[in-house]
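Hi, here's the filled form for the chain we discussed.

Project: internal
Contact: R.S.
Residues: 713
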Amino acid sequence: MRTEAVLAGLDPDQRTAVTAPAGPVCILAGAGTGKTRAITHRIAYRTLSGEINPRHVLAVTFTARAAAEMRARLTALGAGGVQARTFHAAALRQVRYFAARLLEGRGMPELMESKVRVVGLAAARAGVRADRAIARDLASEIEWAKSSLVEPSEYAVAAAKALREPPFEADRVAEVFAAYESLKRRQGVIDFEDLLRAAVWGIEEHPDVGDQIRAQYRHFVVDEYQDVNPLQQRLLEAWLGGRDDLTVVGDASQTIYSFTGASSSHLIEFPRKWRGATVVRLVRDYRSTPQVVGLANAVIRQARGTEAKLRLELEGQRPPGPEPELKIFPDEPGEAGAVARRCRELIAAGTPASEIAVLFRTNAQSEAYEEALAEAQVPYVVRGADRFFERAEVRQAMVALRAAVRSIPGETPLVDAVVEGLARAGWSRSQPPTGGAAREQWEALAALVTLAEEYAAEPEVLPIGEGGRVQREVTLSAFNDELLRRAEQQHAPTVAGVTLASLHSAKGLEWDAVFLVGLADGTLPTTYAKSSEQLEEERRLLYVGVTRARRLLWLSFGQSRAPGGRARRPCRFLPQLERSGASYSRPSAEPSRKPDRRPPKVSSCRICGSTLLAGADRKLGRCPTCPSDMDEDLFERLQTWRATTAAELKVPAYVVFTDATLVAVAERRPTDPAQLLAIAGIGPRKLGQYGDAVFALVGGASPDDLGRKNFEN
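And the returned structure, exactly as it came back:
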């Protein structure tokens, strides 16, 4: 394939990235802007032009799927032979190749697939009691430390600086860390961080190995550079060996893995570290409609902190689509039911189930949506986690609740009985534990308590015999039967269906229709986000969720978790909500499974594109902070006409049109019925009453020219 063909179809910014000269190149690529296209075409362009040899290129990314896609695209472009691998796969290949030389004839140690078993043994050796969830959290802390180049003796100080929330006191975690390292050496095994360290050590401490690797790989491309951790950056620098033929691509606004040690600082500091680097910004979004793009821009426009320095303002390139919709429900079960009904409608209208996703902040939220989709007979798949009732802690809790029936008095209120039964299994309703896995386990059992609250709040009347009816029992035994029913209903064979996934699991994916659910403060952002940096990462999570949608985007939250529960505030990152003046208290008379009320659709500022939810802002069609283009003379004539009309009808002036409506008319200057009806608050009735007068005034008529008119209905 000729180089002209490689350049064909690229937009100007992509072409600049592809044809940039050799040396450091930083491609800042927003969501949906074609970053993979840019870097694969850059590699192909350079190889096909003869500038570089494809065998001398190493392209690294973070998932095997992304690496395989990159290889496939390069082959299609005629640039076969390029090595496209994950950091770990590239390191494994090199360490395995040089093992005999590095290890003095010994074979390469066995690579552990998981740390959890050895961490559990190390915890016991350090005198720390750790079940599987705690062991997972300890493993995560050790992984973070090793990825951050932190040794066991340095852990306590480093963890404090990084505001980590380990499952135990930092000194105890350091003891487990040290015991883990000792056990690994004794067992002759290594973990994935050891693999990267071995690759770095082999290059830095063995000049012959370093020379051979650097002779093989001379040109480097790094995808998702905002997710690189210090250990991976150290390996990259070892590969480079002081050379500068490096292309990186990333988006600081999609930095959502800092809890694992990933740092966008390498992307942010790239131009300063590499003087004279070419920096290209890709902002044309080919994935999402302008309406979705407008909301994404509005979400990230309010971002603060270091990542915001590289914030990109996306430009939607697709044809217009429907506005994103904000839905507010009395509670989470009602929200889940409405989502399931809408998914069923979309599928019936022709949208493939596989092109629909329901995204939430934590995996514990999945149960309500699994239940609602199952009831609606909508197929679904859970991505990145087990189905709710397949999780080990949920299965164990259900066993504990069945056993508790024999020992908890039958007259005990259901919710109290469930809490007591779970307490006997080691769960406490008080402050959830620190550590991600233990906290997720706690939240899953807390979801069972929420189910009990919902079950107790809605006792059904069940049919019996011919015309007979009986009140459903609200007992622990009956609730256990309900849990079994739900589990059986949700254990249908997995087929292609609606995707249920956490926002973290959704990174890198896209769908035609996306439902962002549970958008309430305390869930997103999570209550565990305390620092400004943590809160900003929560904002970026919402941004990532929004940018997964190609065309249809639904945003929703339940005002309480369960019917009758405590009211919650909407997610603070939803643009313009703080100006809406809406009440978010739960309507007391509205049952949870009723169809949703119809809150206003999300609309965009006609000046800056920011999403508008406040009634006055939607009427004006702009943010209150954006400059007004009001025709002052027209506004005065409208005021005079309104006063005369109100006097003739013997009604207050605002009954004719409010001040905000007059301002909107004076700014938008409508000349036909469609334009006048587009102003919020003006419907067919007022169009019929006052339309001719408004059009005449917009056309330049004075109030006196209109004469006396009968404005009666």
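Let me know if anything looks off before we file it.
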